[in-house]
Amino acid sequence: MNLGNRKLRLAVLVSGGGTNLQALMDHAARGDLEGEIVVVAGDRPDAYGLIRARENGIAAHVVDYKAHMRCEMGDPLAVPLPVDLRKLDGIQKIVRDPDTEKRLRRLCRLVAAEREMIGILDAYKPDYICLAGFMRLLTPYFLGHYNRPGQWRVVNIHPALLPAFPGQHGYEDTLGYGCKWGGITIHFADEGEDSGPVLAQAVYPIWPQDGIDDVRRRGLRLEYAMYAQTINWLAAGQIHVQQSKDGRLRASVSDPRYRDVMRRWVDLAFS
Ligand code: GAR
Fold first, then answer.
1. Is the CB of 24 under 6 A from ligand 1?
2. What percent of the chain clears pLDDT 70, i.e. is strictly above it?
3. pTM passes above 0.90
4. Are residues 137 and 161 in the same domain?
5. pLDDT of 206-254, one tens digit each?
């Protein structure tokens, strides 16, 4: 992405407290984020992240997913949508209901919500969509709107060392399994669940007496540092995705200070 001298335009999507969003806004205020948050959007009106955004003078919008998901409909294939629902169903991997009718209805509602979301986000011309605790599944319609071959534009942060523990409870699953190390992953989003090329990972120790609050606190401190750094790598054009011989798409970082960054995250995990 050729930016000239400008910062990245970021759209941040939230579902809850928005502490990652807050950390990004704090980094931006300190002048150490090569990105400008141009819009925040949430999937529920009571997402506290939306209040954080407005308090910082950033436009905040809601797409009421709950209302979309409750929406009554007859034949989902008769609903006018921006995509061919059957084709979408053929390539999607996230809605797994074996009942085709139910699956199509769910996809139809998701696409309707995503169409509204895209309409909001595109008005702000974002370079990247940053998922920061956004707990909704994204269909290939949404991802395909932003991702192009060789150009990934949707970034996600996940509170586990992927591919372990995808889903909505990364911290709980890590602790519950008895892991001695927890991890954080930032990755480009693809059609799978918490899959897509890994951009950044860091780990933190889990001590014998730790409860979920200790684990989450330690992990979140890493999340805040990692998300800003990853955005700065993207802004500097230091992230490259290449197809390996095995067909897998892998991302690599070409920052000359890469080792220092990784060491800082280790220090942070132990501090
Ligand atoms: C963060 O821990 C983030 O990694 C996680 O939700 C939390 C949001 O916290 N995301 C996921 O689990 C995505 N699968 P926040 O709203 O305080 O930033």
1. no
2. 99
3. yes
4. no
5. 999 999 999 999 999 999 999 999 999 999 999 999 999 999 999 999 9
Q: Identify the burial level of 268 via C-beta atoms within 10 angstroms of its C-beta, where 0-12 means exposed, 13-18 middle and 19 or more buried.
A: middle
Tell me the residue ranges of DSSP E strands in 72-191: 128-131, 154-158, 181-188
| Best of 223, 226, 230 for a ligand 1 pocket test (most atoms within 8 Å of beta carbon) | 223
Contact 16, 40 (CB under 8 A): no
Strands 128-131 and 60-62, how do they pair?
unpaired
Ligand 1 centre and the CA of 43: distance in Å?
14
Clarify whether residues 131 and 163 are in a common domain. no
Residue 203 to residue 270: CA distance in whole angstroms:
10
The DSSP string of 162-198 is TTSS-SS-HHHHHHHHT-SEEEEEEEE--SSSS-S-E
For ligand 1, atom 12, name the residue with the nearest CA.
168
| CB 9 within 8 Å of CB 127 | yes
Q: What does the pLDDT look like over 139-193, one tens digit per residue?
A: 999 999 999 888 999 999 999 999 999 999 999 999 999 999 999 999 999 999 9
| Pairing of β 128-131 and β 8-14 | parallel
Residues 3 and 127 in one domain: yes
Q: End of a domain among 78, 112, 146?
A: 146
Amino acid at position 246, single letter: D
Is 190 near ligand 1, meaning CB less than 6 Å away? no
Residue pair 141/111 in contact by the 8 Å Cβ criterion: yes
For 83, the domain range is 1-146
For residues 33-54, one letter each, b for 16 or more C-beta atoms within 10 angstroms of the residue's C-beta and e for the rest, the string is bbbebbbbbbbbeebbbbebbe
The residues annotated with a catalytic role in the active site are 158
Pairing of strands 181-188, 198-205: antiparallel
